[in-house]
What does this fold into?
Amino acid sequence: MGRKFVVGGNWKMNGDKNQINEIVNNLKKGPLDPNAEVVIGVPAIYLAYVKSIVPNTIGVAAQNCWKAPKGAFTGEISPAMIKDVGADWVILGHSERRTIFGEKDDLVAEKVAHALESGLKVIACIGETLEEREAGKTEEVVFRQTKALLPAIGNNWANVVLAYEPVWAIGTGKTATPQQAQDVHASLRNWLSSNASPDIAETVRIQYGGSVTAVNAKELGACPDIDGFLVGGASLKPEFVDIVNATQ
Ligand SMILES: O=C(CO)COP(=O)(O)O
It folds into this structure.
């Protein structure tokens, strides 16, 4: 009850200053549902630029970070740096980080722990592959990925949003049906109730991600355990505003 709808736009490795200006102007024009929280996940190199042009009501997220504040980690950025340029969120454990860059559950957990300790809010992503779904392992995978996060999150659940993103639905145009998504969200909440606490299960927001569009957002958003979206492709387009407003 009372979970504020939260919509994230994950731009991935897309956008240049021209396109960013267009996206931000579109968000400013809105109008955006004041009851929805909006966070845009931008490429690291544009974090400061986006922060300088976006209204304060819109959160800005990095799409990854390292698990230490500074040091000899060529090419990486730290939560301290993300905060220093004014952003306050980071997306961690995205399936593209897990599959393309080989990030395992324990590395994701270490990153989550350090990001939270550093005062960032975290969108932590979980989700099964098509092979895992077809083998009937959806819950096993999602519970395993979430279990790894429990010690990392500790008492910091208020600063965490979970994003359930079935890998087979990402960038494929194959959205999970509202029932498929609702089922996983509900069983994850149930699992959290036993393995974290009933209060955490009740209050944590769980986003759905994977081919969300203005067309399917309303039906997905109406499901009782879907508390928002993590949007890839459509977050670069004007329809993102309609997705933010899906529960209005
Ligand atoms: O990976 C996603 C968001 O993090 C989803 O991407 P698409 O919305 O492009 O399927």
About this structure: Residues 10, 94, 165, 170-171, 209-212, 230-234 surround 1,3-dihydroxyacetonephosphate (CB under 6 Å).
